[in-house]
Each structure stands twice: as C-alpha cells, then as structure tokens.
Amino acid sequence: MEINNLQDLFGSTLSAIYDAERILCRILPGLADYAGNEALAEILRQHRNETEWQMKRLNRITDILGLPRSVKRNEAIRGIIAEFRESIGGIRDKKVLDVALVTSVRKIKHYEIATYSSLSSLAMELGHTQIGEMLNQSLIEEEKTDETLLVLAREGIYEEARKRAA
Ligand SMILES: [Fe+2]
Question: Which CATH number do you get for residue 43?
C-alpha cells in the first residue's frame, strides 16, 4: 500500500489494527481455555465478544470513509502471540502459566491502546470527528480490559504463582 499522505497512513494503520482484531477474535477462546483462573478465563471470553464489536466498528469506519476493506498483515500481534506460544512450551505450572497469559494479553492491549489512541487523534486531525469518537470508544474498551487484567493479577494471580514457586 502506497502512503502519500496522512489519510493514507490513517487507512494503512486502520487495516493493520483490523487484522489484529481478526486474529484476536480467532485466538481468544483458545487463550481462555489455557487459563487456570476462572475469572481470567471469563474476562478473556467476554473480551472476545467486545473484540467482535471492535471489528464491526472498524468495518463501519472503512465504509464511512469509502476505503477498501483491505487487511494489512499485522506482524506485531503475530510476534506477541508467537512469543507467548514459545514461553508456554516451558511452563509446567498452571499458576505460572496464568501470569504468562496475563502478561501476553496485556502486551497486546498496550499495542492496541497506542494504536487506537493514535488513530482517534489522527481522525480528529483529519476532521473526522464521528470516527474519532468511535475509535475512542475502542480505546476506552482496551484500557478497561488492561486495567481489569492488572487488578486481577495483583489481587490473586501473582500471589498464587509466587506461593507455588516457594
Ligand atoms: Fe481489540
């Protein structure tokens, strides 16, 4: 995809985050199955539904702007998932696996937070106020998921794993 201006960069970033959401929709149920902690599994399952709505939101934005529904391969998300898969190969303890799972999902969330925050600001800059607000909604959802995961980890998942290691 050739990028000649800010609008092109916006479209390219949009299609890359679409690929990220598409991948997440596919893998979140499997990640929930890995979780030993039931609350963690439930958060991941709920976020799968939210992710589906985020994909639909991206499709709507693409339609409003009259952009082609192209998908730019997202190597960053694939990289984080590959890193997680590699790390779980060496983890025997379910409690430690939960910590690895929270860490990897939070890495993905932070990627999405930075992307949606940038996209929302860019949309505003380009004069697309409604689209900026839609992207901000996804940003809020990602931030909330990240915060929920962190609280869950601090309120039990970290400690459970530490006790196991002692
Ligand atoms: Fe997302």
Answer: 1.20.1260.10
Model pLDDT, residue 166:
57
79 domain residue, yes or no = yes
**What domain range is 94 assigned to?**
6-165
The string of pLDDT tens digits covering residues 122-142 is: 999 999 999 999 999 999 999
DSSP string covering 18-67: HHHHHHHHHHHHHHHHH-SSHHHHHHHHHHHHHHHHHHHHHHHHHHHHT-
State in Å: Cα 110 to ligand 1 middle: 10
1 lies in some domain: no
Tokens representing 95?
């409690």
Give me the number of domains the chain comprises. 1
- At 68 the pLDDT is 85
CA of 52 to the centre of ligand 1 (A): 8
163 CA distance to ligand 1 centroid (A)? 32
Task: Please give the distance, rounded to the nearest whole angstrom, from the Cα atom of residue 139 to the centre of ligand 1.
Answer: 8
pLDDT band for position 53 (cuts 50, 70, 90): very high
